[in-house]
Design brief:
The termini are far apart. Helix 2 packs parallel to helix 4, helix 3 (53-66) runs antiparallel to helix 4 and helix 4 packs antiparallel against helix 5 (87-100). By secondary structure, the protein is mostly helical. A hairpin with a 3-residue loop joins strand 1 (3-6) and strand 2 (10-13). It has a two-stranded antiparallel sheet with strand order 1-2. It has helices spanning 14-19, 37-49, 53-66, 71-83, 87-100, 105-118, 121-131, 138-151, 155-168, 173-176; strands at 3-6, 10-13. The chain is 66% helix and 5% strand. The chain has 10 helices and 2 strands.
Length: 177
């Protein structure tokens, strides 16, 4: 063990490096069946995070070929079609996901986004309202509801949703406007 100190500015102990070593797995699970429903969906989700939307769509569709009612794959496909600006297809997949699980946060949020874009503002509020039940979307969904209420000229609701969005995320720039 060695220790180096430079006044009060720098302190280094050789043992610190070992203590800071992470133990997180660094390679994929070799036992995972990447051709299973769960494997294909996980692969699709990872590809979408890496912005390989074409590859993600292929994996999600392969997942649906094995399980046509797989909600996460349906929601993922809806998001990809939304990004492609194929709103009717996106809405079709979002509705299929919600037919399986009415309260799925991912499906509800993308359902809200699609409907808002299509001008179906009450359907958008419905999707965002359900998505806001999830911590994942609480602030974002409330900010979207604030903007949607504003578009509907419902000023008190717009203000209430904006404050609610800020309650869950003080740095939500969209809600603070």
């Amino acid at each position: 063990e060695s220790e180096v100190n430079v006044g009060d500015l720098i302190s280094y102990k050789s043992l610190d490096a070992e203590a800071r070593k992470l133990h997180r797995p660094g390679v994929s699970n070799k036992e995972c069946n990447w051709n299973s429903v769960a494997g294909l969906q996980a692969d699709g989700a990872e590809r979408a995070k890496q912005r390989d939307y074409k590859g993600a769509l292929e994996k999600y569709l392969a997942c649906l070929s094995k399980d046509p009612s797989h909600t996460p794959a349906l929601a993922g496909i809806a998001e990809i079609y939304y990004r492609r600006m194929e709103y009717d297809k996106a809405l079709e997949y979002a509705k299929r996901a919600l037919a399986n699980d009415t309260y799925d946060p991912d499906a509800n949020f993308i359902y809200g986004v699609i409907n808002k874009n299509l001008g179906n503002l009450y359907d958008a509020l419905d999707g965002f309202g359900a998505a806001a039940r999830s911590m994942k979307y609480r602030s974002a969904a409330n900010a979207e509801m604030a903007e949607t209420a504003y578009l509907l000229k419902n000023w008190p609701a717009a203000e209430a949703y904006a404050f609610r969005a800020l309650d869950y995320d003080r740095s939500n720039v969209r809600a603070s406007r």
